[in-house]
Amino acid sequence: MKQIEISPVSRIEGHAKITVQLDDAGNVSDAHFHVMEIRGFEKFLEGAAVEEAPRITPRICGVCQTAHHVVSAKATDAVFGLEPPETGKKLRELSLLGQYIHSHALHFYFLGGPDLVLGPDSDPAERNVVGIIKKNPDLAKMAIKTRKIGQEITTVVGGKPIHPVTSIPGGQSKVLTSGERDALLPKVQEGIGLVETGLEVAKPLFETYANEIESLGPVETYFGSLTNGGALELYDGPMKIIDKNGGAVTEFDTVNYLDYIEEKVQPWSYMKFPYLKQIGFPEGNYRVGPLARLNIADSVNTERASALFGEFKDNFGTAQNPLLYHYARLVELMYCVERSIQLLEDDSITSTDIRTDLSEPLMSTADAKNSDEKMRGVGVIEAPRGTLFHDYETDGAGIIQKANLIVASGQNNLSMDIGVRETAKAMIKGDEVSEGLKNRLEMIVRAYDPCLSCATHMINGESSMLLDIHDSDGSLIKRQLI
């Protein structure tokens, strides 16, 4: 047996590789997407005061920081039984939209985009952000300006450009002043034209690479996302599941997510494999993120994004092809700019009523040690990469005893693995594999924009990893679980 290895998978957040096993005839016998890093934040949270979780969890990732910050605050709201005032919720939503703007712009133009702008078969030395800058410097500048808008929102609303701090139990710790709002609004309004310019460049690419869209990463799955009466929703609401044809399967209150979602461990990866519990593994494979959200939504409540959404649905229906995640990101990018403008033009956004205080004191730590009282809070939002769950269980003093984080990239893990395997079987014949073909396998993974630092929370002893030992000729001499 021979093995082809692509390591590392480039232009993603985190560390991963792809392996392809060939039989003696040169046909693919198996292939996998491997995630080899360990982060362990579920364990790091144990023993911390739950009100510190919104400060700790943004450190999971410098890209997904705001999503973890906001969802953690929502979970602490639930622990303490607090309902934030409307302005507090709007400020949280605005900070989350800032995350989307900078994350979607970063991924499409600088991580996923080089495959489309420069071509899957282009020189890997040029197929990156530097190549984008050389080929189309105006496009690169436009992408940087778009991303900067998101960072401006994070800085003003979140208090810091990296690892925001203003979402706290019961709401927000910082108001948005009229002066800050007036300074921020024209910067965000500029984003409309920037996104439109990007779309003029991007849309033809989906026609140019129609064959790749059709052939790379084939998989048909269920989809899941939050919903708001059928409209695209990012901050709140129940979770809806649809089947591969777009038919509704179930809709549930996110506090009950464990009745519907279960996780499985496989020996080739430290990232878990969530699936729909009532359907089973692997048949219950489902995906989340931009493609899932557009598949599930019936409408988008902003003008330009609604028109883009209509085009998307007319062209693709309930879309399955992973590369269409890129297209869906652009629709969402427009929505997030428009929705940010809506919030900033709402006079209530500068209200000082931003937090609900805790009315009842907690137990002392000493009393909590002698008590069986537990508190639990579940927070769920739509992060840029998909549905994000934070679930904290505390003692009576509010000290975290157990934390469960189900991250979007984990929910897409099985689809990435299947997509790599099925594409490898279809395209690889023999052990001479071109650079372009290897890159096409990477493109499948990049389409999901995985954030592996966010998604790997297991620690040694909880699962096993498959170790392959090869001799100097590349022959497999030993395989064991570690």
TrEMBL record:
Protein residues bound to Mg(2+): 42, 405, 457
Entry's family note: Belongs to the [NiFe]/[NiFeSe] hydrogenase large subunit family.
Enzyme Commission no: 1.12.1.2
PANTHER family referenced in this protein's UniProt entry, alphabetically: COENZYME F420 HYDROGENASE, SUBUNIT ALPHA (PTHR43600), F420-NON-REDUCING HYDROGENASE VHU SUBUNIT A (PTHR43600:SF2)
PROSITE patterns assigned: NI_HGENASE_L_1, NI_HGENASE_L_2
Cofactor(s) the protein needs: Fe cation; Ni(2+)
Protein name: Hydrogen dehydrogenase
Binding-site positions, Ni(2+): 61, 64, 451
Lineage of the species this protein comes from: Archaea, Methanobacteriati, Methanobacteriota, Methanomada group, Methanobacteria
The species this protein was found in: Methanobacterium lacus (strain AL-21)
Protein residues bound to Fe cation: 64, 454
